[in-house]
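In this section we walk through a basic example: taking a raw amino acid sequence and producing a predicted 3D structure, encoded as C-alpha cells. The instruction is simple. Fold the sequence below.
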Amino acid sequence: MKKFVSLPVTTVFALCALGLVGFVVYPHLKSSAGADPFDSEQVEMGRKVYATTCASCHGVNLEGQPNWRTRLATGGLPAPPHDESGHTWHHPDELLFRLTKLGPKAYNDPSIVSNMPAFGGQLSDEEIWAVLAYIKSRWPAETRDRQAEVNRRTSG
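The resulting C-alpha cell sequence is shown next.
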C-alpha cells in the first residue's frame, strides 16, 4: 500500500526549502551587485580600477575632458566628468553599470555616437560596481542623496 503525502504538507516543505535557499543565497547576490560609496573595500577596489582603466579619459580627479559638451568631428562627445559637475549622478546605478559594461549600445539607440568602449570583456561585474562606488564616494553628500533619489524613482 502506497502512502501519499498531502498537498499542503508538500507545499509547506517546498516553501521552507525555497526560503532556506533564499536565506543562504540572497546575501551573496546582494553583496555582489550595487555601488556602495560607504563600503571602504569596494571603494578602494574601485579607486584602483578607475586609476588604471578610466582616468585616462575621465580624468584623475573625475574632471572629464575639456569642452565635454561640444561634439567632436566624429560626432561623439569628449569624456564627461564624473564629479558633481557632470551628469553621472543624474542616472540610476543600473544604467551606469550597463553603460560601463556594454558601452553606448546599452541605450539601445543606434543614433547615439560615443567614444565610450564597452568594458564588459575587460572588467568583471564586481570591478564595474566598485568603480561606480568609488565615483559616488567622491561626490558631496547632497549629490549622493540626489542620485539615491534617482535610484529610488527608477527601481520600482
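Looking at the output, two observations stand out. Confidence is low (pLDDT under 50) at residues 9-32. The longest helix spans residues 7-32. In the next section we compare this with other chains.
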